[in-house]
Amino acid sequence: MSQAGQKPGTPQAVSRRRFLTLAGIGALGLVAAGSGLKLLGGAKTRAEEAHTGAGERVRQWTAIFDLRSCDGCQSQNTAPKCAQSCILGRFVPEPMEWLEVYEHNIAGGGSQFVPTLCMQCQNPPCVNVCPVGATWQTPEGVVLIDQTRCIGCRFCMAACPYERRFFLWGDPPRPPETALVHYSPLHQIGAPKGTVMKCDFCTEILSAGRLPYCAEACPNHAFYFGDLEEDLATNGDKVVKLSQFVAENQAYHLKAELGTKPRVFYIPGHGEAVGRSPFKKGRLSVEWPWNKEGVKTWKRSGR
Amino acid sequence: MEALRPVDGFRQRLEERAFAPLIKTGRGFYLLVAALLLVVGWGVFAYSTQLREGLIVTGMRDRISWGLYIAMFVFFIGISMAGTLISAILRIAKAEWRMPITRMAEFITVVALLVAPAMISLDLGQPLRMANLFIFGRWQSPLIWDVFGLTTYLVASAIYLYLALIPDLGICRDRLSAAVHPLKRWFFRLFAVEWHGTPGQHHSLARALGVVMIVIIPVAVSMHTVTSWIFAMTLREPWDSTMFGAYFVAGALYSGVGVLIILMAVIRKAFHLEEYVTTGHFMKLGYMLAAFALIVMFFNVSEYVTAGFKLRGESEMHLAQVFIGALAPYYWFYALAGMVLPVLLIAVPFTRNMWGILLAAVLANVGMWIERYLIVVGGLRVPLNPYEPANYFPSWVEWSLMAAAFALFTLLIALALKLVPAVAVWEMVEHHEAKHVTETVSESTPVAEALDGGRLPGAPLRMRPAAGPADGGQK
């Protein structure tokens, strides 16, 4: 019965080594099988679905905001039309502003308006931290979210240095005109509560050759959308050579020092091209029209 | 079987004391369990509200998107350090005074590691998709590192706890069969895995324990480190720190020892283990607590001085909110009552006694809980865009679930104490006998019979050690 008398014999050692080898091979096989399944399954079809470029050319979607022409819609006496149009066109639930016009202080005591949307980083912190691959980068350089996979851990929200990710804390209001729409990561309509949403660069609309809601709504044509690959961008009024336009106007990235490599450029300014004084402060707030009775929304910050 | 045994009745007294809770259950215990179940039940109700309505019922919003749940997760991960520290490190160091408290420490570890992932599941917006972590898990994500770390640590500490339990289960099976419920008898027989204390079995057990105690230390350190990396891997100024891993390990040691002191005091009183868990134990753990407090203080000062000297980026706002702003009351309570006061309580001879050390341990844990909260909420409260900082206050659902988590933690420990002895009987007996062998006596009467009979044969009714050396370290 006692095992103490047994010498540390060789048969046992060999069998242990064999066991470990077999276990190692088995574990490797499981990992390989898992990866294979993953490649064959969801990820591939989802990437195909998100790949909206026509033909062989893979678009590299880019945006340029000409802050010289942005006065926060002070001259229009409305809430920023870009942000408002985004909410209306994309059925953005209250209180999210996928595109929010922030008023930054500038040297000398004045202010500038900076429309801030998802930067479509090429080194996206949100994608890097997602534990389940629910947010990913398309071949066109756009970061999307699969709300059928998202577990709602909100790690991406903690990771995003631009605070451009929003959580569905409750059931989002669903406008009646979206009733027949099937969910897709490209438009995010039908995303369930407990998942994360954000600006998706209106990739569907860009691929169809039109400008996104924000750019289309801007009365001052301050928004350019374009394709790095073709090196062209347009604001709906004129077409510019993207690289030249960016270089000649000292365009910059928000928080470039973080190394996130955004796809959104800003041309410095405070609305001078449309006659705004940097000392004229303040802008109006956007509204969410589909606050039906009985639909619970939530306030922006905690109590 | 004849063996050399001392005649001071150490073994009988210990077995009587250690096995008494397994045999007899007082009304107090049922009341405790009922109260804890009530709190857990209230938590279940609160959680059902959250499942139905979504996380909208919490105080969290887009700007401060993690709150109490994540702070609780980090807190429970922290106190899970207790078992590793006391059992593994002291076992390696051959510190013999550890024996009466190793099992309690290991309980804390395993139970804290069971409660911690529950905190994560409370925080998920889509808890039913938790399996996605395993189906679609990306090893590149720090959260998956935590999943790996936590499961490995849980399995390792469960094995560690169980290995050291086997001989005691064997003793329970041999001695308590007559006195306990058949289900418990079956439990002892099954999990004692035919332990009969043969030299071969002792040899195997010692080897297994030796391997696990070595393995579990790096596992524990990496577990606490990857937990800190959930924060340190983001681009937020208050979390963007290379020392976060070490900081979390130190904080875990601090709160882990604190919880062990609290549990030790409770079990000592409830199970009348004064002979074995002595003032000496409180002193030794008190000194460790003070040492860890100083290490945590060191990290705290390093963190704020290096950030405050440069005031880069959002540091200024963060330090202002911590030192003089919205979070200042929490911070100063943590710093003064949670770190300085415990050290003073242990350093000053007048308060350096069991009650002083117990108070220090309670303060340390309140302080560390606040510190976790400050790390999570303070880090997220710093605006990354130009707007007024948001505020976060937990809702009734979050408070309820926090209470339920603590209740569940206590409940699991209380139930475990009814299933297995609170102290490592076999280890203490072996150690004592190796030290005090005097004379040959025969195997003692089964304890259960003795208890039924009201007194142990050959032992005095009041079982106080006459003048014999207690195996507790009180010198």
Task: Please outline what is shown here.
The complex is a heterodimer of chains A (303) and B (475). Chain A has 8 helices and 11 strands.
Within the CATH hierarchy, at the fold level, what is the topology of the largest domain in chain A? Alpha-Beta Plaits
Q: What string gives the helices and strands of chain A in order?
A: HHEHEEHEEHEEHHEEEHE
Question: How many domains of chain A?
Answer: 2
Which structural category do the helix and sheet elements of chain A fall into? alpha+beta
Roughly how many Å apart are the termini of chain A?
69 Å
Number of strands of chain A: 11
Q: How many domains make up the coordinates of chain B?
A: 1
Order of helices and strands of chain B: EHHHHHHHHHHHHHHHHEH
Unreliable segments of chain B (pLDDT under 50, ≥5 consecutive)?
Answer: 439-475
Most extensive protein-chain contact, per-chain counts = A-B, 58 and 57 residues
**How many strand elements of chain B?**
2
Quick one: biggest sheet of chain B?
Answer: 2 strands, antiparallel
Helix content of chain A: 25-40%
Which secondary-structure class do the elements of chain B indicate? mainly alpha
Question: What's the Cα radius of gyration of chain A?
Answer: 25 Å
The CATH architecture term of the largest domain in chain A is 2-Layer Sandwich
Question: What is the mean pLDDT of chain B?
Answer: 89
Amino-to-carboxy terminus distance of chain B? 34 Å
Q: Indicate the CATH architecture of chain B.
A: Up-down Bundle
Q: Going across the biggest sheet of chain B, name each strand in turn.
A: 1-2
**How big is the Rg of chain B?**
24 Å
